[in-house]
Specification:
There is one protein chain. This protein is an alpha/beta fold. The protein folds into three domains: about 1-275, Metallo-beta-lactamase, Chain A, CATH 3.60.15.10; about 290-325; about 325-460, Glutaredoxin (3-Layer(aba) Sandwich), CATH 3.40.30. Helix content is about 25%, strand content about 25%. The chain has 15 helices and 20 strands. It has helices at about 40-45, 60-65, 70-75, 95-100, 160-165, 195-205, 230-235, 295-325, 345-350, 370-380, 385, 400-410, 425-430, 455-460, 460-465, and strands at about 1-5, 20-25, 30-35, 55, 85-90, 110-115, 120-125, 125-135, 140-145, 150-155, 170-175, 210-215, 240-245, 270-275, 330, 355-360, 390-395, 415-420, 435-440, 445-450. It has a seven-stranded mixed sheet with strand order 6-5-4-3-2-1-14. It starts with a strand and ends in a 23-residue tail after the last helix.
């Protein structure tokens, strides 16, 4: 089960920030939980409107449901015939948002399923239990179960035994906290604080607590120190209180970001995997390297430097072996689609003797591989390669129009051509994945000299190389890291 926090502002959105909205995925099924103001633009950074499989709305306040309208508009008016979208909500919760357009305009775009508080239902692979929780409008908390994992979501709520019941033994409690410590007296029955949610998580025995901060007014860093959101929650529930403070405007990261501790802001899209409590993905208070004297540190650094030099020499020896690899003739009458017309494989060399091809996965219409996207973002100036007689080209089986649209969307300028309709990918042995290949041209003859994929491509990533120099590394499960270091699944 995978959770993406699309927004968490309270009452109204801010620049670059959405109100409540969460994408929960399992086995390829995509469930949107709440659709507050400005959630759809954040969603479209991850997938298209057509990719959504179902929607669950906790209650009818617009900061939790207003963007159902643009989502339905995108599906109905987008030019593609889509099946009606299953929408689950309490009776009457969506009357206002569904009445925004002329009668009947969006009727074919959705099927409304009215929730029975306290009932159970299946939404795709998710088993869902609901419970009415206290708020100024009827609010349905939800317990989602899939793949042996449990996520509980509160929506806007005040203190209630129902939260504890829904979250009992859950792997993750996703809780909205409108205040850090004290809730104003006139709202104590209908809104929650971080401290209160920490107490409820402790009572429920949840594995982790993720707070989204939905304050009625933006919380700005205080002049004098005061408890942060995670601090307030930890005071009531020490194990793992996570704070997703979605307050500071900023671009959505293309890779998952760690949740910040205390009152630090994070970008508007936070991604985490829901796993058992013993498997820690994000920690607000992480273990740290041992503190030693300057002399002890220098001694340890010198010992590591010796090992680094040995590894460098080993890599040099590998590169020498790579230069001595034989080559195989690569013949094929491939016709590549390019912005300037059809080209043969020899044309891709652009007059140079060596060609490096990165084969970008084709996932179908309007879907794009996030790993290939991250790798392509990593490719910068190609001038220095050209000076060394090497041409770089990215190739994909996607149609050229799709490639051009995605290039424009991502702001890429590198050569990116289409092998759609050819056997190039199959002949390279790409299969369903990605591949980096190196070719040598001798007149009109082309030879393949080298290929690599997976970790072989991974080592070319600027981000990965820099993270390997940092104390917490890549924070991936396969790494050999000390106990207590943050990890995420690979």
């Amino acid at each position: 089960m995978r959770l993406t926090v699309l927004g968490g502002c309270g009452a109204y959105p801010e620049a670059g920030q959405a109100c409540s909205g969460y994408l929960v995925e399992h086995d390829g099924f995509r469930l949107l939980v709440d659709l507050g103001y400005a959630v759809v633009p954040q969603l479209l950074g991850h997938l298209t409107a057509a990719d959504v499989d179902a929607v669950f709305i906790s209650h009818g306040h617009p900061d939790h449901c207003a963007d159902l309208n643009p989502l339905l508009r995108a599906r109905v008016l987008g030019g593609e015939t889509l099946p009606p979208l299953p929408v689950y909500a309490l009776p009457g919760a969506l009357d206002a948002v569904l009445a925004l357009d002329r009668p009947g305009m969006l009727d074919d775009g959705y099927v409304l399923h009215e929730l029975t508080p306290g009932g159970s239902l299946d939404i795709g692979p998710f088993g869902v239990q609901t419970r009415l929780l206290p708020h100024t409008r009827p609010n349905a908390g939800a317990r989602l179960t899939a793949g042996g994992k449990v996520l509980t979501y509160t929506g806007d709520t005040g203190p209630d035994d129902g939260v504890v019941a829904l979250a009992r033994g859950a792997d993750l409690l996703l809780a909205e906290a409108s205040f850090i410590d004290q809730v104003p007296e006139d709202s104590r029955s209908t809104l929650s604080s971080a401290r209160l949610q920490g107490r409820q998580a402790a009572a429920a025995g949840t594995g982790r607590l993720l707070l989204t901060i939905c304050c009625r007014a933006p919380i700005r860093p205080p002049r004098a120190p005061r408890p942060g959101r995670a601090t307030a929650a930890r005071s009531a529930w020490p194990p793992r209180a996570l704070s997703s403070s979605l307050e500071q405007a900023g671009p959505r990261p293309r890779t998952p970001m760690a949740l910040r501790d205390e009152s630090g802001a994070v970008p508007p899209s936070t991604v985490m995997d829901v796993r058992s409590a013993g498997q820690t993905r994000r920690m607000d208070s992480m273990a740290k390297p041992e503190i030693v004297s300057a002399q002890e540190w220098q001694q340890a650094r010198d010992e590591l430097l010796t090992a680094e030099k040995q590894a460098t020499r080993a890599l040099d020896a590998l590169a020498a072996r790579r230069r001595r690899l034989p080559m195989v003739r690569f013949a094929g009458d491939y016709v590549f689609g390019t912005p300037t017309g059809a080209k043969a494989l020899t044309d891709l060399f652009d007059g140079r003797g060596q060609l490096v091809v990165y084969q970008f996965m084709d996932l179908g219409p309007d879907r794009y591989c996030p790993g290939c996207t991250a790798f392509t973002n990593n490719v910068t100036s190609l001038d220095s390669l050209a000076e060394a007689g090497v041409t770089w080209v990215t190739v994909s089986d996607m149609p050229l129009a799709q490639i051009q649209a995605y290039k424009a969307r991502m702001g890429w300028t590198l050569p990116f051509v289409s092998s759609h309709g050819t056997s190039f990918s199959a002949d390279c042995g790409v299969g369903p994945g990605f591949l980096l290949s190196v070719f040598l041209r001798d007149g009109t003859d082309v030879y393949r000299t080298y290929t690599t994929t997976s970790r072989g491509v991974d080592r070319l990533m600027f981000r990965q190389n820099i993270l390997d120099l940092c104390p917490y590394g890549r924070q991936e499960a396969w790494e050999d890291s000390p106990p207590g270091w943050p990890r995420q699944p690979t």
